[in-house]
């Protein structure tokens, strides 16, 4: 049976994620214009710099105040700052003209920083597989404000050979 386009491009994003050497999360992203693949990227340290598997993760902690049902709660967030995210690398290595009106397929829902960058990149749609709960509410709200189609492939099953690279 022939795969639909969403499955085809998400499969490629998952295959790209296997290049990541991050021990915490392997993320892949692809840029698509129509049915044409224009670029791929994965998360990792800058070229020529030791990555997390060599030098360890560089964890930064931050506290954010979240309001739920009128009650403010402090939420601690940990992020690795050694790694350039897949979406950031995709934007660094593709041309603005190619991104205008395009779609990004990414294995994981973009974090707040990546969502901000994608919102200004010219893309009109972002399709992701796994949720990233730390930033999901504000990312969804911003994408709605920007008019960017933002959707999750919920029934999607990644290629078998990439499952070993997924981190719960």
UniProtKB/TrEMBL annotation:
Its EC number is 3.5.4.12. PROSITE patterns: CYT_DCMP_DEAMINASES_1 (PS00903), CYT_DCMP_DEAMINASES_2 (PS51747). It is an enzyme of class 3 (hydrolase). Its cofactor is Zn(2+). GO terms for molecular function: dCMP deaminase activity. The keyword Hydrolase applies. Keywords: Hydrolase, Metal-binding, Zinc. CDD domains: deoxycytidylate_deaminase. Residues 4-150 form the CMP/dCMP-type deaminase domain. Pfam families: dCMP_cyt_deam_1. Belongs to the cytidine and deoxycytidylate deaminase family. This is dCMP deaminase. It comes from Paenibacillus hunanensis.
């Amino acid at each position: 049976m022939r795969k639909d386009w969403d499955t085809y491009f998400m499969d490629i994003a998952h295959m790209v994620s296997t290049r990541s050497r991050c021990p915490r999360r392997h993320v892949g992203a692809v840029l698509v214009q129509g049915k044409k693949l224009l670029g791929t990227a994965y998360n990792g340290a800058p070229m020529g710099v030791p990555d997390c598997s060599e030098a360890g993760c560089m964890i930064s902690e931050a506290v954010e105040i979240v309001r739920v049902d009128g009650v403010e709660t402090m939420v601690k967030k940990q992020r690795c700052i050694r790694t350039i995210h897949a979406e950031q690398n995709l934007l660094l290595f593709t041309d603005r003209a190619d991104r205008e009106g395009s779609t990004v397929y990414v294995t994981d829902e973009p974090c707040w920083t990546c969502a901000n960058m994608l919102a200004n990149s010219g893309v009109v749609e972002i399709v992701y597989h796994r949720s990233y709960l730390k930033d999901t509410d504000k990312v969804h709200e911003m994408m709605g404000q920007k008019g960017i189609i933002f959707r999750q492939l919920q029934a999607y099953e990644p290629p078998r050979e990439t499952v070993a690279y997924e981190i719960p």
